[in-house]
């Protein structure tokens, strides 16, 4: 199967957004061994879109379209493709019901043009849109597989993984397949990790080993190619164990794992609870933890004491402590962690105090951060020196918090 | 001039990197009034690249290539274009000297294939590469302007601005330029907004009016074309005032504005402070507000009372209130907003309580949300019915919070 990814949208040609959909789809197709030969971007213009469809159909046999499925007159993808391939458009009952329900639920008025979103190519396989209104779809035409997906990445990505990937796998000749495994590391830079593994990266070809830095973490993608799944898994296992042997303290999990999920799972396993006392992070720890469904079983709450006044009033930090050590100090982090644990009657209390910038504070440089963790037996404070922008210092601080909390909870098990 | 941007590189088709070059070039071309009709991405494959060059030459008269100018065998852009257009490749003396000097300066050994980087299309205008080794170039062929630029954005972007833009301006009739303005709306769906403006969207051609949904908001892009900047600005002003007249309560700002920044600015202007009491949002309000440098002047802190126990203990929510109305109630939101305002001694207290899902709570459906705002004179509670995932309900809740807080602070001014 030779694929072409066609994004439809004038906002791309005006440079207002970047075509991240093409990257996402390409990466997923590479993982299942589908060659992508072209990306095309075309505007909301019927004539040029029709010509792009024809060009694509003449050189590729898997066409994946993103965008142009919205309710407005600008949105022409379905209509144009139907015309080029001589197909009929019909209303999909389930999608129409879903749209009507969505408007009813949100007390909003449905307009006539919203119904247009429920139109599908006749006999197409419908991909439900769980994060928006426009359904996706797939159909065959003269040996060419066509997929139509919505443009907003928040709608397209989950639909692609849940519905489009399984659909594509049923259409493929299965010979050699690619199997990937993603290993995740925290607390180590990409280049140091790569140096530790350079000889493996150079000599290993099956699986290949590809490090990638992302969001204050490093991931390594292992890709094994084999027609037999079991053998591919063994190849992956072998590479993984060699890599983990060399990098053990930094390795923390696989693709779907996150530091916050692991901390939550450890707390659940210990039947333990946590509360936080946040200063420089301003609620980011609580916010990320409570993004996880089920977090109410482990998280009781938090005090965000952004001002010194509230540190004293809500967390009882003694005046003498602040005068002697300042609020950006090991002593203050320790106090905050202990106090929130007692106040919220939890098993663990975690605290964050530090300087996110842009200005220094108490003559301590930007990036000075203390994380305190009060556990059932003792309280530990970790001193960090972080680099980056205000935003990245706050994000890294919280990642360290989840990482350290997970370690300490696991040690107590 | 109708442009097509052709990126050459298999790493793009494998999804390893995103095509940010196309976005950058498109944005710059839009600013000087050049229409971009297509983006194409093709791999490091001579046959498919040649075919992409031919297709582009048949439909566009400005072809801008990025990538494939490096020293390795994979790098085929110049060679393939020269072949398709029947041009000769020659060594550019200045570029060769520069490369030799670069290697000497960095104490690295120069290999024979590095000389390949100094090859240019005969008689092309050379664009020096001040951030790498491969020069860019421009030439004409049968009325088609071709630009070849390096792939790494750190080399391409400065070269484009310093050399390619001035080159293009000499080739253009500088007549019409495009001027854009982005209007931002909150609390209204894309299709209702469009319905309100349909006649304008249909009949207005200068400026054009394009709505776009993004991250729980809607933006409208106005694009005016005129050779005279002042007249273009007047055209934009006219369209803006007509749009705002019809949608006034939803319009909140321009491209760089965000709801949180506006709320912070209103508080600063009123010399007022705020503290929050968060339940379903788990700290998201505080976290977004404290992402802004300078927020410490307006934000004192927050109590995240995720468990009912902490709502009672830290926010003193009376047992009787919870028994009678539940924690997901107007009454609880009002109490929380009032109490945090008193506790933190701020001018405003804002509270969030509701059901983010996935499960309902107190027999109230997912998406039931109450936002309380206690101000200097009175306390108001807003009842919302939100749809979406847990994550999007939490995000929308906080956006509503910033929007409402901004409105109330401005009303008090």
Key terms:
6-stranded mixed beta sheet; alpha/beta; Alpha-Beta Plaits; homodimer; 5-stranded mixed beta sheet; Molybdenum Cofactor Biosythetic Enzyme, Chain A
Look at the structure and give the CATH class of the largest domain in chain A.
Alpha Beta
Strand content of chain A: 25-35%
Largest sheet of chain A: 6 strands, mixed
Count of DSSP strands of chain A: 17
In the CATH hierarchy, what is the architecture of the largest domain in chain A at level 2?
3-Layer(aba) Sandwich
Strand pairing plus helix content of chain A: what structural class?
alpha/beta
Q: Show the largest interface.
A: A-B, 91 and 93 residues
General description of the model:
Two copies of one chain form a homodimer. Chain A is α/β, with parallel strands linked by helices. Chain A has three domains: 2-171, 3-Layer(aba) Sandwich (Molybdenum Cofactor Biosythetic Enzyme, Chain A), CATH 3.40.980.10; 177-254, 2-Layer Sandwich (Alpha-Beta Plaits); 259-411, Maf protein (Alpha-Beta Complex). The first copy, chain A, has helices at 10-13, 20-31, 46-59, 77-84, 93-105, 112-115, 153-171, 190-203, 229-247, 259-270, 284-289, 308-315, 319-325, 330-344, 390-411, and strands at residues 2-8, 35-42, 62-66, 89-91, 119-121, 125-127, 136-141, 144-149, 177-185, 208-214, 217-226, 251-254, 274-278, 299-305, 348-354, 368-374, 379-385. In chain A, the strands form four sheets. Chain A has a six-stranded mixed β-sheet, with helices on both faces. In chain A, strands 14-13-15-16-17 form a five-stranded mixed β-sheet, sandwiched between helices. In chain A, helix 3 packs across helix 4 and helix 10 (259-270) runs parallel beside helix 15 (390-411). Chain A starts with a strand and ends with a helix. The mean pLDDT of chain A is 92.
């Amino acid at each position: 199967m030779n694929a072409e990814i066609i994004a439809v949208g004038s906002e791309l040609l005006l440079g207002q957004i970047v075509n991240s959909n093409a990257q996402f789809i390409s990466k997923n197709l590479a993982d299942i061994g589908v060659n992508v030969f072209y990306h095309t971007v075309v505007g909301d213009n019927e004539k040029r879109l029709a010509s792009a469809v024809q060009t694509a159909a003449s050189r590729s046999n898997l066409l994946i379209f993103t965008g142009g499925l919205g309710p407005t007159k600008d949105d022409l993808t379905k209509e144009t493709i139907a015309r080029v391939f001589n197909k009929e458009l019909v209303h999909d009952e389930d999608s129409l019901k879903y749209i009507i329900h969505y408007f009813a639920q949100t007390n909003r008025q449905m307009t006539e043009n919203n119904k247009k979103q429920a139109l599908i190519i006749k006999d197409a396989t419908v991909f439900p849109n769980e994060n928006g209104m426009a359904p996706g779809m797939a159909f065959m035409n003269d040996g060419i597989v066509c997929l139509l997906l919505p443009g907003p990445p928040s709608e397209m990505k989950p639909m692609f993984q849940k519905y489009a990937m399984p659909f594509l796998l049923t259409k493929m000749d299965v010979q050699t397949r690619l199997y990937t495994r993603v290993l995740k590391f925290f607390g180590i830079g990409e280049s140091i990790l790569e140096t530790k593994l350079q000889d493996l990266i150079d000599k290993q070809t099956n699986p290949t080993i590809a490090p990638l830095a992302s969001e204050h973490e490093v991931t390594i993608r292992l890709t094994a190619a084999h027609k037999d799944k079991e053998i591919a898994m063994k190849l992956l296992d072998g590479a993984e164990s060699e890599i983990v042997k060399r990098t053990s303290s930094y390795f923390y999990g696989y693709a779907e794992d996150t530091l916050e999920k692991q901390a939550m799972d450890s707390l659940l396993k210990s039947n333990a609870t946590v509360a936080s006392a946040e200063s420089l992070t301003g609620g980011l720890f609580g916010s990320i933890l409570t993004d996880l469904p089920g977090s109410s079983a482990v998280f009781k709450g938090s005090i965000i004491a952004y001002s010194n006044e509230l540190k004293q009033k809500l967390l009882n930090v003694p005046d003498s402590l602040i005068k002697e050590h300042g609020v950006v100090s090991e002593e203050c982090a320790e106090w905050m962690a202990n106090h929130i644990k007692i106040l919220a009657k939890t098993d663990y209390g975690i605290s964050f105090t530090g300087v996110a910038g842009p200005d220094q504070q108490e003559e301590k440089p930007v990036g000075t951060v203390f994380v305190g963790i009060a556990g059932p037996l003792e309280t530990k404070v970790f001193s960090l020196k972080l680099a980056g922008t205000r935003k990245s210092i706050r994000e890294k601080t919280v990642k360290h918090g989840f990482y350290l909390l997970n370690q300490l909870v696991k040690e107590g098990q």
